[in-house]
Automatic annotation (TrEMBL):
Keywords: Apoptosis, Cytoplasm, Membrane, Phagocytosis, Phosphoprotein, SH3-binding. It is found in: Cytoplasm; Membrane. One of its GO terms (biological process) is actin filament organization. PANTHER family: ENGULFMENT AND CELL MOTILITY, ENGULFMENT AND CELL MOTILITY PROTEIN 1. It comes from Oryzias sinensis. Involved in cytoskeletal rearrangements required for phagocytosis of apoptotic cells and cell motility. Acts in association with DOCK1 and CRK. Was initially proposed to be required in complex with DOCK1 to activate Rac Rho small GTPases. May enhance the guanine nucleotide exchange factor (GEF) activity of DOCK1. This is Engulfment and cell motility 1. It comes from the Eukaryota. It holds the Pfam family PH_12. PROSITE patterns: ELMO.
Length: 714
């Protein structure tokens, strides 16, 4: 007879005694189980004891998490969270430096557990730690472990960040501002400043007064990538929380301090590979930098504003090498006619008043800014494009003005200007860190590409949208190769001519065009179940390999991971927390928690997931919504995931649906099915190359008049 579901068999350790094997009834109160264990070892005052998971986490067992105890778990009897907190509260105030250091090490380790953290905070432990930091008497390891404990305690979100004094902020800032500071202390101090800025608008102002960009720059010029990562994170936090009116000012300071070139030299072009967290912070910085363009992108041109109209006059002057005529030269009608003719050559939609073209938002005034930048900084190319098109036949001219406006709008969509950075994205482009005006330079390359593609397509005004679609595809394909510089991006585009795009499209459409006859479709239907089974096996194998997921909250942390993998027999999901991102597969036996596949009721995705309904930054981020999924088990228990990228999201949702006997519906499955079916069909039809396959099967011949015939094999 198997044991009842509420009974779990565990081993319990106690220092100096043999471990006990016992059965725990999960229906009994935890206090009664602890009393039973204490009585077995003749220990009095069972209220002073508690049970812990005997692994590297040492987390306390509580009524809330006791369901995580599985058969075969090893537990440890230890002092209760309150007693441990009380002892550590006293020990960290010891007059002996060695005793104090050991106590702080124990505190930093214990603070990762929320049950202990709650008890220590109730003893006013946070205030004690801040006083120790403010006193300035501790240095080196003492200070490092004090700050580590503080970071771990605050990460639980039990108390508000708004409670800290200016003296504490000044002290933390002083650790960052010092040129020679212990690496561990500097790392913790940067983490604290980032959390302060992200979690409190009031603290943002206080931190901004104590820390300048100039004081952070030297930390980027070192060789420690962790310090560089935390430094960029603090800069991003200050950027993100700065009021709208101060962001442009801050961007100007960043440009003055040459932040971009320092990051390019010391981080991006450093021989050390960029880790995921640094890639994320560079992506955030890239997004925040481009978001500075949002104001211009959403600003309509005022047709009555003379300063704005002068920019259009400047475009005309540079293109046609004409000076603004004085008001008394020629009749008004003649001047109007001349302006109208030139504005038509410049490719504006409204030839009479081109200012009207810039009232569309997006891209608003940003398009005009880009055009002026191109005209001033790439004057030869600008003049060549305008004059070349103004001398063509009307039906084949590429309208520079209209093209620039639509191209600017397209580039804003591609780079997601105005959207908040995703919590989970690492997609930064090194080439945007190679120039102070990277967006404008990006535009200059793309407008020349558009003109080149227009000529290659021999396009007319009716083909305008088709040209824009081809240009978008060219840009997206070149960006996907992650060029290291704008010149490299330009050379990638040279290889993606319109002819090359047609070849790529033709090759991608081959399946649809070549395999439409009835016999081929029937063969395809016959093969499809085999291919789907192959895809299903691949998904399940990937689940068996497992994936490392990042724990994400509104207080983003760099070092919280958990791992999940499917058992080889496809019957159990093993999962558990990790100290750091793993280099390879994590073995099943190191993952403490288990979820039987038979207990899974459903897979939920997107905004329906419980962790997407919680209040916080994640709810507003559509990219995170697209990567979120949850496994519902028992009645209302959930295992919540946020995939590292779209590929892993598709693999896991497909694999889980396959385990439940449901259809795999992800985009990745459709793509794999098309690719594998195409390959299999081509292999099977190799012998029929150059043979026309009829749409209908040949007719069956009539029966012979008699069957009196024999074939002589000899």
């Amino acid at each position: 007879m198997p044991p009842p579901a509420d009974i779990v068999k565990v081993a319990i350790e106690w220092p100096g005694a043999f471990p006990k094997l016992m059965e725990i009834d999960q229906k009994k109160p935890l206090s009664a189980i602890i009393k039973e264990v204490c009585d077995g070892w003749s220990l009095g005052s069972n209220e002073n004891f508690a049970l812990q998971i005997a692994d590297s986490t040492n987390f306390y067992i509580t009524e809330k998490n006791r369901n995580n105890i599985k058969n075969g778990s090893i537990l440890r009897l230890t002092t209760s969270p309150y007693q441990t907190a009380l002892q550590l509260h006293e020990r960290i105030q010891s007059s002996s430096m060695d005793a104090k250091l050991e106590a702080l090490k124990d505190l930093a380790n214990a603070s990762r557990d929320i049950t202990f953290a709650q008890e220590f905070i109730n003893l006013d432990g946070i205030s004690l730690l801040t006083q120790m930091v403010e006193s300035g008497t501790d240095f080196g390891d003492l200070l490092s472990f004090t700050l580590t404990a503080f970071v771990e305690l605050m990460d639980h979100g039990i108390i508000s960040w708004d409670t800290f004094s200016v003296a504490f902020i000044k002290k933390i800032a002083s650790f960052v501002n010092k040129s020679a500071m212990d690496t561990a202390v500097l790392q913790r101090s940067l983490a604290i400043l980032e959390s302060m800025v992200l979690n409190s608008q009031d603290l943002y102002h206080k931190v901004a007064q104590e820390i300048t960009i100039g004081q952070l720059i030297p930390h980027l010029q070192g060789t420690d990538q962790d310090i560089q990562t935390y430094t960029v994170a603090v800069i991003n936090a200050l950027f993100l929380k700065a009021p709208e009116e101060k962001r442009q000012e801050m961007a100007h300071i960043l440009a003055q301090k040459q932040l971009r070139s320092i990051i390019l030299t010391n981080v991006i072009r450093n021989p050390t590979p960029i880790n995921d967290e640094m890639a994320h912070q560079l992506y955030v910085l890239q997004v925040l930098t481009f978001n500075l363009l949002e104001d211009r992108m959403m600003t309509k041109m005022d047709p009555q504003d003379q300063a704005q109209r002068d920019i259009i006059f400047e475009l005309r002057r540079i293109a046609f090498d004409v000076e603004c005529e004085p008001n008394n030269s020629g009749s008004i009608e003649k001047r109007k006619s001349m302006y109208t003719r030139d504005y038509k050559k410049l490719g504006f939609i409204n030839h009479v008043n081109p200012a009207v073209d810039f009232t569309q938002i997006p891209p608003g005034m940003l398009a005009l800014d880009n055009m002026l930048y191109f005209a001033r900084h790439h004057q030869d190319a600008y003049i060549r494009i305008v004059l070349e098109n103004s001398s063509r036949e009307d039906k084949h001219e590429c309208p520079f003005g209209r093209s620039s406006i639509e191209l600017t709008k397209m580039l804003c969509e591609i780079l997601k200007v105005g959207e908040l950075p995703s919590e989970n994205c690492h997609d930064f482009h090194p080439m945007f860190f190679t120039h102070d005006r990277s967006f404008a330079e990006f535009f200059c390359i793309c407008i020349q590409l558009l003109n080149k593609t227009w000529k290659e397509m021999r396009a007319t005004n009716e083909d305008f949208n088709k040209v824009m679609q081809v240009v978008r595809e060219q840009i997206m394909r070149a960006l996907s190769l992650k060029p290291n510089s704008l010149d490299q991006f330009k050379s990638r585009l040279q290889n993606l001519s319109y002819t090359e795009i047609l070849k790529i499209r033709q090759s991608e459409r081959m399946n649809q065009e070549d395999f439409q006859s009835r016999p081929i479709l029937e063969l395809r239907e016959k093969i499809q179940p085999e291919i789907m089974e192959l895809i299903k096996q691949q998904r399940l194998n990937r689940l068996c390999d497992g994936t490392c997921f990042r724990k994400i909250s509104s207080r983003r942390r760099q070092d919280k991971f958990w791992y999940c993998r499917l058992s080889p027999n496809h019957k159990v999901l093993h999962y558990g927390d990790l100290e750091e991102s793993p280099q390879g597969e994590v073995p099943h036996d190191s993952l403490q928690d288990k979820l039987p596949v038979a207990d899974i009721k459903a897979v939920i995705t997107g905004k329906d997931c419980p962790h997407m309904k919680e209040k916080g930054a994640l709810k507003q981020n559509k990219e995170v919504l697209e990567l979120a999924f949850s496994v519902l088990y028992e009645s209302d228990e959930y295992l919540n995931f946020i995939a590292p990228d779209k590929h892993e999201y598709c693999v896991w949702t497909d694999g889980l649906n396959a385990l439940l006997g449901k259809e795999m519906t992800s985009d990745y499955t459709k793509s794999d099915l098309d690719t594998l079916l195409s390959m299999e069909m081509k292999l099977r039809l190799l012998d029929l190359e150059n043979i026309q396959i009829p749409d209908a099967p040949p007719p069956i011949p009539k029966e012979p008049s008699n069957y009196d015939f024999v074939y002589d094999c000899n």
